[in-house]
Amino acid sequence: MVEPARVVCVHRMTNPIEANLIKGLLEQQGIQVEISGEGLVGAYAGVPRVCDVRLLVPPGQRQQALSVIEGYEAAKGEPDDGRHWVCAGCGEQNASNFEICWNCGLPGEAA
Ligand SMILES: [Zn+2]
Predict the structure, then answer these.
(1) This prediction's pTM
(2) Per-chain residues with Cβ under 5 A from ion ligand 1
(3) Average pLDDT for the chain
(4) Domain spans of the chain, in order of start
(5) How many Å lie between the centroid of ligand 1 and the Cα of residue 59?
(6) What angle, rounded to 10 degrees, do the helices at 16-28 and 62-77 form?
(7) Which of 63, 81, 85, 103 could form a disulfide with 92 if both were Cys (CB 3.0 to 4.6 A apart)?
(8) Alpha carbon of 108 to ligand 1 centroid (Å)
(9) From ligand 1's centre to the CA of 95, what distance in Å?
């Protein structure tokens, strides 16, 4: 008889430091997290090595965990602070860190 999965993998990565960071974020949300593969990496501490690290959570908390990870990934990849200015020339939306319109090159509000 096959037992139902106690935990499911929600994320795979190669960086155990990042894995621990995400684990902390998930635990803040009350999600039980296990990391697999971490011990293997520890044995090679100090040696950069591509490894398979997995974040495991109970199946019932999978969706919640995925949305937390999604938010983390989005924050990591987007230095954009969410503010935008609208170009007077073409009406295009530009991120606040753009000094000129990416579309038509017209200087933005900062200029
Ligand atoms: Zn423009």
Answers:
(1) 0.55
(2) 87, 89-90, 92, 101, 103-104, 106
(3) 79
(4) 8-77, 81-111
(5) 47
(6) 120
(7) 103
(8) 8
(9) 12
